[in-house]
Design goal:
By secondary structure, the protein is α/β, with parallel strands linked by helices. It contains 17 helices and 16 strands. The chain has two domains: about 120 residues, Urease, subunit C, domain 1, CATH 2.30.40.10; about 290 residues, Metal-dependent hydrolases (TIM Barrel). The structure holds zinc ion (ZN). The site of zinc ion (ZN) has 4 residues, from loops. One of its GO terms (molecular function) is imidazolonepropionase activity.
């Protein structure tokens, strides 16, 4: 058995302890330990408290001391619970066309849109795709993100979806980031499929879902419910089958038209993501449910669309996670902290709400109960910013980067 490690003292240690999964949060609710310390062993947090108390308690025991000097704010490593970082190519031309006034249809007709990413992703070998996933995951790691959800959905055939999910698994073995794979075979009806949307979803349900289980590729199923993708009627039997097989569900919901969030509530999905056009009825239904709403400000910034009504969701009593949606079409930036901080200024979110949205509430969106807080029994996944107050983290809108990142008790990033 490894010896204990004691790390500290941190000017401020934000544990996120005691904060509820749902509802609005005030900064005064944050559990902040001044001159705090963390004791961990075998990658798991053993104790959290005032550094000098922990030093006295562990004096004489086998303990490795990691001393922190200077200003330091420690908090749980961030979690990005919605990304599409498994993609080939670029959609810079779509971005230019859209900003020059072209419509969705005109962009598609010019060879852009999701279909162009499908072609550029299919053109990569599984090994090449793995490489780009690892590269992007490591960029997120630099931002203090230790857990990243990654969707398939640019394969859109049985073989290509499986290639994507196998590449995600191989990437997971090649990066320090924990990659949580989600099957998004129901992203859009592929142009080269001969048959109806129902036929396509039946094929995916019958041919892909069983292999996800047998090869342990993913336990999460996502669907894009939208006029340009699949209708809530289309998705019923697909989700019913997935649920019967034991998959967790998540939905791309209410991005341009409503109906997706109702499906998320109906199927008790882990999360409903996007929600830019959710109205009072959708917000109320989400607030009554245990579905985690996920705001994707990167998509709003990429498309020039309104933000998810984060304030209204929280005030109605819903939860709120925030994710980057990093993808080549609508959210090419891939900077979670910048996006979450910008969302806060437009939606009037407290620091506690922003930080909860990228820590334990994002963990809940992924069905993970072992991370997102700094407390006994949780993974020793934490980050350190060289600054005297946690307020600087959102104030500097992503310009302040963590100087340390610890993943399961191992130092991954360590800057002087
Ligand atoms: Zn997405």
């Amino acid at each position: 058995m490894e010896s204990y490690t004691l790390i500290g003292p941190f000017t401020q240690l934000l544990t996120m302890k005691g904060l509820p999964i749902k509802g609005a949060l005030k900064d005064k609710q944050l559990d902040i330990i001044s001159n705090g310390g963390i004791v961990f062993r075998n990658g798991i947090i053993e104790q959290v408290g005032v550094f000098s108390d922990l030093s006295a308690q562990f004096l004489g025991k086998q303990v490795e001391l990691m001393l922190i000097s200077g200003d330091a704010v420690c908090l749980p490593a961030f979690i990005d619970c919605h990304t599409h970082i498994a993609f080939g190519g670029s959609r810079a031309n779509d971005f230019a066309l859209r900003n020059a006034g072209s419509s969705y249809l005109e962009i598609a007709n010019a060879g852009g849109g999701i279909w162009s990413t499908v072609q550029q992703t299919r053109a990569l070998s599984q090994e090449q795709l793995k490489e780009v996933i690892v590269e992007r995951a490591n960029e997120l790691l630099e931002q203090g993100i230790a857990t990243v959800e990654v969707k398939s959905g640019y394969g859109l055939s049985v073989a290509e979806e499986l290639k994507m999910l196998r590449a995600i698994r191989e990437a997971n073995d090649a990066t320090e980031v924990d990659l949580i794979a989600t099957c998004l075979a129901a992203h859009t009806l592929p142009k080269d499929f001969e048959g109806s949307a129902a036929d396509y979803l039946d094929l995916m349900a019958n041919e892909v879902l069983p292999i996800l289980i047998s090869e342990k590729l993913s336990n999460r199923i996502d669907a894009f419910i939208e006029q340009s993708a699949f209708s809530s009627e289309n998705i019923q039997s697909y989700f019913a089958k997935a649920k019967e097989l034991g998959f967790d569900l998540t939905v791309h919901a209410d991005q341009f038209t409503t109906s997706g969030s109702a499906v998320a509530v109906q199927f008790e999905a882990r999360s409903a993501d996007h929600l830019e056009v959710s109205g009072e009825a959708e917000i109320e239904a989400l607030a009554k449910s245990d579905v985690i709403p996920v705001a994707l400000p990167g998509a709003s910034l990429g498309l020039g669309c309104p933000f998810t009504p984060a304030r209204k969701l929280l005030d109605a009593g819903a939860s709120l996670a925030i994710a980057s949606d990093w993808n080549p079409g609508s959210a090419p930036m891939g900077k979670l902290l910048t996006q979450a901080s910008v969302l806060a200024t437009f939606e009037k979110l407290s620091n506690a709400e922003v930080l909860a949205g990228i820590t334990f509430r994002a963990a809940a969106a992924l069905g993970l109960s072992d991370r997102g807080r700094i407390q006994k029994g949780y993974l020793a996944d934490f980050i350190v910013f060289a600054t005297p107050t946690y307020q600087d983290i959102t104030y500097l809108q992503g310009a302040l980067q963590p100087t340390q990142l610890w993943k399961k008790g191992t130092s991954i990033i360590q800057q002087a």
